[in-house]
């Protein structure tokens, strides 16, 4: 088994296409990063003194400096003001949720349970400190903007020919007639595919972290995610380090699930091109549809469970989303993870079953 | 060890590639003789379990080979008609890959791969990419991989097609050396391969089982049906029209024609000792099928 995995990895990593694609994508990512304006590592010294709990004194001082100066001082004041206002805004949202709850007659209804869950989450949020978070903000934003494209594309290029390559080369006849050519080979291919995804994700995230540390410094891990405007309404409370780790984990998990889907499509496909197109459609369609057309509400909800949404991660965490299953609300990230796991388990079972029954074409 | 095929049928849509083949195979080389498209490869694929029969069963010592699953596949070595390879693999790497698919441990694989590379005379080329090999070299790697697990059932489909005479002789010798204590199934439409190797010959035509016997018995049944006739250019066309004509040898004083006929075709005709080419001609010379002859039965 170990030997077979080693051979599958060799076959996977000896595809020139993945290196060419990775190089092109990294070049483009560097290009887009380079043209994006932003402070360098030395800027931290100007923010450092403002870090920590936001006090009235700090706020007044920052306000005065902002009125006198411009640019950076104004930016600091806005950030401090955002932290200061957050508790007020949170209280308003909590009140809104409480009001909605009180209007509901049936406390055991689905809507009531969802509101109770939202209230519970909101009441745990603690955001009172300011930290300079620009470098880490860029690091975590990379997953949502470039990271998913990088990982998704490499999965498509690397794995869409995992089984079709055997058919095209005629080696499938040998493989299927051998002792391990029906079950163990599927196991080996899956393990190799998952290792491939982990390697690609490591390259992608590693590149991202190193790039931003070199360019802007290693600052902002302790900042609360609510300091980023996108997550201002998020019901989840955590610092950037926790969120970055969570986001990376979800991103890689979704990549692994996509890989299983692509491997499954590869087994069903007659040739690598067809497999690539089908896999590409599964991966990119929800993203393209949401970017370029107005999708109906129900479809947008379905897209929340798509591979691309999971790989981008952000949509799961920016607002409160819950799905009611058997009368109990499940947070969207948990529900979607379960759905992706179930779908992948189904694909995996079918992979084994189909390869067991597979016949070569006359 | 016995492989029993019982009413094995394979259909592709409306086309029947194999029609109710029933036969028992035992240790020794069984040559499957048939024209292109006769169903030889389909039968080989089914025996190699890369294809399933539409109907019928195949039993190995009384057990269904598809039920035996991996246990059966442990016993077989298969060389398909169209040999496939990874172009960027060296022969050594490819054989190691096949060894791991066949369940050999690393130590067993090292020993077997070394042995096979030497046996097929490829040890000098072990590190070269297979994409650069000639057809004969690829075929040698093909037979090497088929034998890695020391199979009890060896299935080789048209192994000498596309090889030059030297490679063909080499391949035949390789196969002859491995034939003891196993069932070897060799499909071909090149009769000379069978002449040297086969203990039994199974004839398949248009997906139907025709007969199976030893080469001697098959040829004996043709005694008195093969003739050589010295003739002229002018009369040659008549013979071709009326008989199944084999070799035509041009000599200084005329032409000698080898043909099949129930009765003496002309006064000058001389009885010839039948060979496997005559047998093939009898069964697969479709151009002259309008004039069948009857063979003597034992």
Automatic annotation (TrEMBL), chain A:
Organism of provenance: Sporolactobacillus inulinus CASD
Keywords of the record: Membrane, Transmembrane, Transmembrane helix
Entry's transmembrane regions: 12-32, 142-163, 190-214, 240-265, 272-289, 330-352
Source superkingdom: Bacteria
Protein name: Uncharacterized protein
From TrEMBL, chain B:
Keyword field: ATP-binding, Nucleotide-binding, Transport
Gene3D superfamilies: P-loop containing nucleotide triphosphate hydrolases (3.40.50.300)
Pfam families the UniProt entry points to: ABC_tran
InterPro entries tied to this protein: AAA+_ATPase, ABC_transporter-like_ATP-bd, ABC_transporter-like_CS, P-loop_NTPase
Domain ABC transporter: 3-231
Highest taxon of the lineage: Bacteria
GO molecular function, one term: ATP hydrolysis activity
Family recorded in the similarity comment: Belongs to the ABC transporter superfamily.
Protein name: ABC transporter ATP-binding protein
Species per Swiss-Prot/TrEMBL record: Sporolactobacillus inulinus CASD
Source taxonomy: Bacteria, Bacillati, Bacillota, Bacilli, Bacillales
